[in-house]
Amino acid sequence: MATHRFIPTHWHNVLGTRPSALEVASGDLIVTETIDANGWDKHGDKVATGPNPMNGPIFVQGAMPGDSLKVEIIRMTPTRPTGWTRASLAANVVDPEDVRTLPARDRATWLIDLAASTVRLENPPNGLEHLVLPLEPMIGCFGVAPALGQAFSTATSAENGGNMDYRGFGPGATVWLPVAVEGALFFLGDCHAIQGDGEIVGTGVETSYEIEFRLTVEKARLHVWPRGENAEAIFTVGNARPLDQALQHATTEMLRWLETDYGLDKVAASHLLGQVVRYEVGNVYDPAYTMVCKVEKRWLPPKG
Amino acid sequence: MATHRFIPTHWHNVLGTRPSALEVASGDLIVTETIDANGWDKHGDKVATGPNPMNGPIFVQGAMPGDSLKVEIIRMTPTRPTGWTRASLAANVVDPEDVRTLPARDRATWLIDLAASTVRLENPPNGLEHLVLPLEPMIGCFGVAPALGQAFSTATSAENGGNMDYRGFGPGATVWLPVAVEGALFFLGDCHAIQGDGEIVGTGVETSYEIEFRLTVEKARLHVWPRGENAEAIFTVGNARPLDQALQHATTEMLRWLETDYGLDKVAASHLLGQVVRYEVGNVYDPAYTMVCKVEKRWLPPKG
Amino acid sequence: MATHRFIPTHWHNVLGTRPSALEVASGDLIVTETIDANGWDKHGDKVATGPNPMNGPIFVQGAMPGDSLKVEIIRMTPTRPTGWTRASLAANVVDPEDVRTLPARDRATWLIDLAASTVRLENPPNGLEHLVLPLEPMIGCFGVAPALGQAFSTATSAENGGNMDYRGFGPGATVWLPVAVEGALFFLGDCHAIQGDGEIVGTGVETSYEIEFRLTVEKARLHVWPRGENAEAIFTVGNARPLDQALQHATTEMLRWLETDYGLDKVAASHLLGQVVRYEVGNVYDPAYTMVCKVEKRWLPPKG
Amino acid sequence: MATHRFIPTHWHNVLGTRPSALEVASGDLIVTETIDANGWDKHGDKVATGPNPMNGPIFVQGAMPGDSLKVEIIRMTPTRPTGWTRASLAANVVDPEDVRTLPARDRATWLIDLAASTVRLENPPNGLEHLVLPLEPMIGCFGVAPALGQAFSTATSAENGGNMDYRGFGPGATVWLPVAVEGALFFLGDCHAIQGDGEIVGTGVETSYEIEFRLTVEKARLHVWPRGENAEAIFTVGNARPLDQALQHATTEMLRWLETDYGLDKVAASHLLGQVVRYEVGNVYDPAYTMVCKVEKRWLPPKG
Question: How many domains does chain A divide into?
Answer without folding.
Answer: 2
